[in-house]
Amino acid sequence: MKNRDFIRSLDDDRMARFLYTWSINCVTSFLQHGGLYLMNAKEMREWLDSTEFVCEETRVAEDFVFDQNFNLRECDS
Predict the structure, then answer these.
(1) Which residue, of 4, 20, 48, 57, has the greatest Cβ tally within 10 A?
(2) pTM, rounded to two decimals
(3) From the CA atom positions of the chain, what is the Rg in Å?
């Protein structure tokens, strides 16, 4: 499945988590690396047409409460 199709298939909750992760990772990368690892418009278009989903903007840390597919994870109480 291409990334653009995966994003279209997200329900509202998963889309909110995706957009939150994307924006946090963009801001963090900009502050840490001056935006060096962020995609430009051409790279973003290529990424949308590819099937390799993980990139700096979609990276999910182990301590987040959702997984790389933006589903809620089971958490220890």
Answers:
(1) 57
(2) 0.85
(3) 13
Tell me the pLDDT tens digit for each residue of 6-36.
999 999 999 999 999 999 999 999 999 998 8
Contacts 24+ apart (CB under 8 A), 8-11: 10/70
Give the DSSP H/E element, type plus range, for residue 10: none
- Parse the chain into domains and list their residue ranges: 3-58
pLDDT in tens, 31-53: 999 988 899 999 999 999 999 99
Which pairs count as long-range contacts for 30-36, CB under 8 Å and 24+ apart, including other chains? none
b/e burial code for range 25-38 (CB count within 10 A of at least 16 → b): bbeebeeeeeeeeb
